[in-house]
Amino acid sequence: LWLLINHNVTAEINALSFSPVGRDLDRESDEFWQSSTRDVQVDDRIINIFERYISTIITKPDTNQVSVGRFDDEDQSKQYLNEMLTLELAMDENPGGYDRFEELSKTFASKLINQMKITTSPNDGIFFVIQGTWYGEPLISMMKLEPQDYERSVIDEDARELRYEELDDALPDPDDFQKG
Asked: What is the pLDDT of residues 117-135, one digit of tens each?
């Protein structure tokens, strides 16, 4: 699936996973789950939402407004990210690399929940991991998006699928995205 970004830049999104994250979420319970493009159909319109977020982060003219995470030398996160970059994935196929992609995505979601537990007042959200390419180079994008309207369910909890209309209306504008 090729996506046009900024009218002259192409990106290919190979895989996407998502899971709810929150300070009070018990990772050992059924509340902590994950879906991916291997499990559920993800509408092209939803892919376009992520296209806007990725494009905004990468091409943001004032990078001082985007804070970037750092790696702890004791942590294996950098190794995991490098591994994710090398996985051969495609949204329209079911290659063996998906098991590892989902496993690593869930590991990062767990790490985020651990950090949320020691943060003063974190907001619950949905954690997305995207593997793809930007100008032909491997790309991993991780985003915790916080729906602005918690009354609207952006996820069909039974099917564990994203709802386009709800997602599009509930998420902040990509220009307001603060971290990348």
From this structure: 888 888 888 898 999 888 8
